[in-house]
Every structure is written in structure tokens, then in C-alpha cells.
Write a structure and sequence with these properties.
Number of strands: 7
Distance between the termini: 6 Å
Largest sheet: 7 strands, mixed
Number of domains: 1
Radius of gyration: 15 Å
CATH superfamily: Gcn5-related N-acetyltransferase (GNAT)
CATH topology: Aminopeptidase
Order of helices and strands: EEHHEEEHEHE
Strand order of the largest sheet: 2-3-4-5-6-1-7
């Protein structure tokens, strides 16, 4: 497998006051929480969003492990729909490796790029994290992610607090 240098940027909204939401006026958009996200449905979301960006971590998880993780009260999966069709998702984790709520995974399905829906989905996810009691929201993104991910986070008020570079094999 080829190896590439990957730069990962960690960003945070240290307080709610830093948050600059941007919601879409499109009345056809809906965000629905997957309150019982089945492993197969979650994998559909994960693969469809993450395949272009080499997301592979969760693909190796068994149904039991994934189901147990998704059933945790600290984990929320919010699915963006356009006219009834899933268009992306955001996963929040309130019990991750750092204090606050982590935007664990976030993205759109490729046919929905470039319409401003990413701003809307991220804004809704951050709003939900704060509504659920987060004092801080954080995320990490890397150079393998979509070309507008970092700009979207910064436009919503996220500020970088750590940058790490490493070598990674790409399947």
C-alpha cells in the first residue's frame, strides 16, 4: 500500500459564544436522529461519506461492537435528508478521549457536495451538542478529508489547538 504524509488538525469551540452557525433556508432539508442506528445502516452512512476519504476504522468493527457503541447514551447520530433521501450525517460523542463533545464523524454523500448542506449539518450538530450540555465541542480533520472541511470548521468558529503530522498507508 502506498504511504502518504497526513496532517491532522484538532479544532475546538471552547465556548458556545465562539459558535457561528450557518443554516440552509432549503425547506426540503430535514435532520433526523437515528435513535436506533442499526449497524448495517450506520455502515451505509460511514461508507458513503467516508469512502472517498479512506475512512476504514469502523469497517473492521463487528456488528456487536458497533451496535454496543451506537447504543451508548453519549453517542448521537444525526442524519441529513433531502426530500427523504439520506444526504450525510454527523456523529457526536460526549464521552470521547478529550473533554466536551466530539464531532466524531461528519460529512455529506458526494452527490450533495457544493450546496451549503455541510454548513447546515455541522451547525445543527454543534447546536445539538450544546443543547445536550457540552461546554466545549471539538473535532479533528486531516488532509485526507474533503477540501472544504477545515474551512467549514473555521467558519463556524472552531479554532485550531493542535496539529500533528504522520505517515499513513492508503488502501
Amino acid at each position: 500500500m502506498p504511504t502518504v504524509t497526513v496532517t491532522t488538525t484538532y479544532l475546538e469551540l471552547p465556548t458556545r459564544e465562539h459558535f457561528r452557525p450557518a443554516f440552509s433556508p432549503d425547506p426540503e432539508l430535514r435532520i433526523i436522529e437515528a435513535r436506533e442506528p442499526l449497524p448495517a445502516f450506520y455502515r451505509f452512512l460511514y461508507r458513503t461519506v467516508g469512502e472517498p476519504y479512506h475512512w476504514i476504522d469502523r469497517l473492521a468493527w463487528s456488528d456487536e461492537r458497533l451496535g454496543s457503541y451506537l447504543a451508548r447514551p453519549s453517542v448521537s447520530v444525526l442524519v441529513l435528508h433531502l426530500r427523504g433521501t439520506p444526504a450525510g450525517y454527523i456523529e457526536l460523542n460526549h464521552e470521547s478521549e478529550e473533554p466536551g463533545a466530539e464531532v466524531a464523524y461528519f460529512g455529506l454523500f458526494p452527490p450533495f457536495y457544493g450546496r451549503g448542506y455541510g454548513r447546515h449539518l455541522l451547525s445543527t450538530g454543534v447546536q445539538r451538542a450544546y443543547a445536550d450540555g457540552a461546554r466545549r465541542v471539538w473535532v479533528h480533520t486531516c488532509t485526507l478529508d474533503g477540501p472544504y472541511a477545515l474551512a467549514n470548521y473555521r467558519a463556524r468558529g472552531f479554532v485550531p489547538y493542535r496539529v500533528v503530522t504522520h505517515e499513513q498507508s492508503i488502501p
